[in-house]
Amino acid sequence: MVSAKGSNKQRPANVPEENVYSRMHWMVIVTYVAAIGAMAMLMIGAG
After folding, report:
1. Which residues pair with 11 in a beta bridge?
2. Sequence-distant (≥ 6) Cβ neighbours of residue 8 within 8 angstroms
3. Which of 4, 12, 20, 33 has the CA that lies 20 to 30 A from 26?
4. CA angle, 34 as apex, 33 and 35 as ends, to 5°?
5. Backbone phi, psi, residue 13, to 5°
6. What's the pLDDT at 41?
């Protein structure tokens, strides 16, 4: 099997095909939004 973006690197046998991502996963975006929101709340509360 060939992994994402057409590289020649083989996917390990114990990694399911659905765990290979070619773009940013939506949970990464949710985590960044939550972290920025938490930092904003800390800065507003400290002022």
Report:
1. none
2. 2
3. 12
4. 90
5. -65, -30
6. 96
> What is the structure's pLDDT at 25?
85
Q: Which residues, listed in sequence order, are joined to residue 10 by a DSSP beta bridge?
A: 2
Structure tokens at 5: 């973006």
Instruction: Confirm if 26 and 34 have CB atoms less than 8 A apart.
Output: no
* Residue written as token pair 């690197």: 9
pLDDT, tens only, 1-47: 444 555 667 878 888 877 777 788 889 999 999 999 999 999 999 87
Show the tokens assigned to 6.
């057409």
What is the number of H-type helices and E-type strands within the chain?
A: 1, 0
